[in-house]
Amino acid sequence: MSWESPQQSFEGLSLSALGTDQAYLRVHWAGAGPAYLYWLSENCHGCPWQILKRVESNGTDFEFHTHHAAGFMLHKGGDVDYITTEDASSDALRICDLNAELGEFGVYDFNASEDSCEISEALAPVNANLALLVCCLFYLACWLVWCGLNRVAGAQVSGLARLLGWNKEEEQKKSSRPRIRSLDTFRGIALVLMIFVNDGGGGYWFMEHATWNGLYVADLVFPWFLWIMGVCIPMSVKSCIKKETPVKTVLWQVTVRSVKLFLLGFILNTLGGWITLSKLRVPGVLQRFGVCYLVVFVVGYSFTRADTRQTAGLWWTRVADIVNLLPQWAVMLAVLLTHQLVVTLVPAPGCDAGYAGPGGLHNWTPEKNNSGCIGGITGHVDQAFFTTQHIYGNPTAKGVYSASAFDPEGILGCLTSIFQVFLGYQAGYIMQVYSGHVDRIGRWIGWSVLTGTIGAVLCGASQNDGWVPVNKNLWSISFVMVTSSFAFLLLAVLYFLIDTKQYWKGQPFFYAGMNSILLYCGHSVGYNLFPFHFMIGDMRTHAAKLPEALWGTSLWVIIAFVLYRKKVFVTV
Q1: SS3 of 168-188
Q2: How many CB atoms lie within 10 A of CB 37?
Q3: CB 361 within 8 A of CB 44
Q4: Is residue 89 part of a domain?
Q5: Beta bridge partners of 97
Q6: Contact at 8 Å (CB) between 481 and 451?
Q7: Any residues with CB less than 8 A from the CB of 241 and at least 6 apart, and which?
C-alpha cells in the first residue's frame, strides 16, 4: 500500500484522515473583507455553484473528492447557498473561479487576491491506478504458472483433481448441435463483472454506475444479462414447438418461471434487514428479468410458425432471420414507440413534458427548480404505483444532485428492457437460421454496427447534450442500443475464439455462466460475510480495496468451477 499513501502528514495536514480518492485544498485569501468558497463538480451537469463555507484570513483547509474535475469560486457574499453559472458570470461580488482536477492524497493551494487567483500543487498526488497494473500482472503470472504446471506436471495435477473429485470427464453427448460455449462464457463474463463491481470494484469511480447520464463499467452488467437471456429464448421456443408441447403447458411453464424470478428478487430485496413491510422495495433486478422473459417468450412463441419456411432461392434469403421475425418486430417496435411517446409527451406533475433529468439541483434557478422531478414521468409512475416508500431510496443521483427517491428498475424502464431482450432474441435466432460461422459472426457484427450507430445518433455522441442521452437509470433507448452494440460485438468475438477457432474454452468465465443464478443469489447473500469480504486496517486505498474485491470475486469463480466439476447446476 505504500506507493498509494506515501506519508502520514504534510505541513500540519493529516493525510491519514483522507479517504479513498480525496485530496486537500488550502484556500488563502489575501484580499479585503470576507470571502466564501463555492464549488461545482463536473459530475453535476446543469447544477449551480454551491456554497461551502467562509474562508478565514489565515487560510482554510477543505477536503474534496477527486473522482471528477471541479470548479472553485471565491465570492464576497455568502448570503445564498446556490448561484447559477449564468448569474455568477456577471456577479459583481465574484472574485474569481478556476477549474482543477485534483489527485488522490494530493495537497493543493488556492491562492487568491483582488487581482489574481491560481491553484498550485503543494504535494503531488499518488498513482491511484498502479494497483490495477499490479493486480493484472499478478493474474497474468498465475495463468502462466498454471500453464507451466499443466505442461510440466500435467499427470500430477490431474491426479490431485481426481483425488478432490473435481476431474470428472465432461459428458460427450452426440448431437448435431453441440453446446455453444461462447454463450455460457458471455453470461459468465457479465456475472463475474457484476460480482466485482458489487464488491466495490477496488473503489474506482469508473467501476461504479454513472451518476445519471453516461456509461461506466457497472452499467454494462445488467443489460448484458438481459441480452444474453434473450439470445437463449429462441432455443426454448424451438424446443417447445418441436416437442409439440401444448400451448397451455408452455404458457404455464413460462409464467411459473417468471413468477419464481420475481419472487426471488423480491426476497433478495430484504437482505440487510430491510424487512419492514411498509418500506419494502418492490422492483428489482430479478423482477425485471421475470417480466422481460415472460413478454419476450410469449411474443416470440406466439408468432413463430410450426413449419419453418424454406428460403432457398428467394430474394430475401440473406435477411431471412429478420423476415421470419417481422411480426415479433412489429410488436416490439410498438412497445418501444409507446415508451418513447409516454416519456416525451406526458409531463409529471410540476415538471415539464419530456423532462428526463435527475431533478434536485439539475437546472436549478432561484425562480424554479426540479425538486421531485427525478426521471420525469418515469419516476412519477413508480412513485404513484408503488409509492415512494416501496421504491429505491438511494439512487445514484442522490449524493450529487440532492435528488429524491427513484427506482432504476421501475415500470417504464421495463418497456425498453423488453426491447433489449428482443435484440438478444434476434441474435439467438440468427444461430437457428444460419449454421455457418461466417454468416453468424458477420450478422452479429452488422447488428453491432447498426445498434451502435443508432445509439450514437440518439445521444449525439455526447454524455449530456444529445436528443436521448445514454442513461441506465431511465433505461433510455440510446442506452439499450449502445450496450446491445457491445453485446453483439462481444458475442461475435467469443464465438470466433471459442466455438469457431477453439483457441480458448472460455475458462474460467464458462464455469460461472453455467451456474449464474446460484452465483448471483449466493453473492447477494454472502455480501459482507467472511471469507468473501474482510477488512485490514482502514482499507482507504485502492491498493487495499482492489485485492479484497478480486479475492471475493475469485472465490465465487472457484466455487463455480467446483460445482461444474461435480455436475451441480441450479436453475429457476
Answers
A1: CCCCCCCCCCCCCHHHHHHHH
A2: 23
A3: yes
A4: yes
A5: 73
A6: yes
A7: 301, 304, 306
Domain that holds residue 221: 168-565
d(CA 236, CA 238): 5
| CATH label of the domain that carries residue 22 | 2.60.40
Active site residue 390: no
Among the listed residues 45, 67, 75, 209, the single catalytic one is 209
> What pairing do the DSSP bridges indicate for beta strands 107-112 and 117-123?
antiparallel
Give dist(CA 292, CA 418) in Å, integer.
Answer: 5
| Domain-located, residue 158 | no
- Nearby residues of 58 by Cβ (< 8 Å), 6 or more positions away: none
DSSP 203: G
Cis link prior to 508 (omega < 30° from 0)?
A: yes
How are beta strands 35-41 and 49-55 bridged, if at all?
Answer: antiparallel
Point out the least confidently predicted range of 19-28, 126-135, 308-317.
308-317
Same domain? For 418 and 484 the reply is yes
pLDDT in tens, 153-200: 777 767 766 655 555 554 444 445 678 999 999 999 999 999 999 999
Q: Enter the C-alpha cell of residue 11.
A: 505541513
In terms of phi and psi (left: phi > 0; alpha: psi -120 to 50; beta: otherwise), the region of 567 is: left
- DSSP letters along 516-556, please? HHHHHHHHHHTTT-TTT----TT--SHHHHHHHHHHHHHHH
DSSP assignment of 124-148: PPP-TTHHHHHHHHHHHHHHHHHHH
Helix, strand, or coil (residue 340): helix
> Whose grid coordinates read 493484472?
136
d(C-alpha 408, C-alpha 475), whole Å = 8
DSSP code, position 471: B
pLDDT in tens, 233-288: 999 999 999 898 899 999 999 999 999 999 999 999 998 878 788 889 999 999 99
> What are the residues facing 107 on neighbouring strands?
24, 123
Q: Does residue 172 share a domain with residue 111?
A: no
Determine which helix (DSSP H) or strand (DSSP E) holds 198, and give its type and residue range: helix 181-198
The grid coordinates of residue 304 equal 413463430
Q: Which grid cell is 379?
A: 419516476
Last residue of a domain, one of 78, 100, 127: 127
Residue 346 located in a structural domain? yes
If 0-12 CB within 10 Å is exposed, 13-18 middle and 19+ buried, where does residue 133 land?
exposed
| In a shared domain, residues 204 and 312 | yes
3-state secondary structure of 73: strand
Answer yes or no: do 57 and 184 share one domain.
no
Q: Which residues pair with 370 in a beta bridge?
A: 360
Instruction: Give Cβ neighbours of residue 272 (< 8 Å, ≥ 6 apart).
Output: none
Q: Is 134 inside any structural domain?
A: no
**Is there a single domain that holds both residue 64 and residue 172?**
no
From the CB of residue 267, how many other CB atoms can be counted at a distance below 10 Å?
13
Is 427 strand, coil or helix? helix
